[in-house]
């Protein structure tokens, strides 16, 4: 969200060149194999019966219900934005875990644009991943201290004059969201925590019906280790003979349960990330058909910050930043979110015409 031509803090030559999170796209695996089927009610019952809910879930339930009721009274629409990746612990007292590729950039950025368009936002995010507003100064190659300077008398810390205008804009937006109770932060770390919390929030949001939108930008693990097979303490290398063989189970595809049962009249937007452009559209269309929701946003790992494709029952439509927008560091989410809001408004009107 940086303004065109806004200054950036000095960085070391090494940090400005090296990005360790960038994958080797030449070695991407074949993603043409079929996906797991959508979860059934029996899958849902078994999963939530056999796994223990997070101990803090009742507190989240109370906070979410209060937040939703507050905005329901003033007829404000609410977006649930999921963000960041889930982990799969390999021990109960977790030392080792399998992680998921996601820093939460898309989710945190999108949440800001939903807030700017008048929505309240429940931000279901990976703990310590990017957050709305603070994302401008975290998870970057720049140290936050680069934005600061000493006062002339050397007794105070001040924002460097070069960055004051930009930081003031972000600060005002953040304070407005806080003072008007527009943003509720809900954390998760593991895939189990994410799924239990998603179901809870979806059921709490049922009171606002089609005024709810689900923007599912989190990277959810495809596999997990069932509770019955997780050791209590750290796995000792001598006990496994120097090798660790992990037998993972597929995570049930609960998106269909969200569509059919947890939030049946809300608008639901999911994302499909691929590395192979030849299968992106077909994978997104397959997901749309399998889960029967309103919109799949397809994006390639290599170009996800510059272009995405909207896949609906009516067809496909690409959204791309032009060269000037790329040069000016325009967030593609600043285009994605207003497009989705237009679709949400149309969805609401269609529900009203149908008497739902």
UniProtKB/TrEMBL annotation:
Transmembrane segments: none annotated. InterPro entries: CoaB-like_sf, DNA/pantothenate-metab_flavo_C. SUPFAM superfamilies: CoaB-like. Residues 209-306 form the DNA/pantothenate metabolism flavoprotein C-terminal domain. Residues 1-27 are annotated as: Disordered. One of its GO terms (biological process) is coenzyme A biosynthetic process. Residues 1-12 have a biased composition (Pro residues). GO terms for molecular function: phosphopantothenate--cysteine ligase activity. Belongs to the PPC synthetase family. This is DEKNAAC100628. It comes from Brettanomyces naardenensis (Yeast).
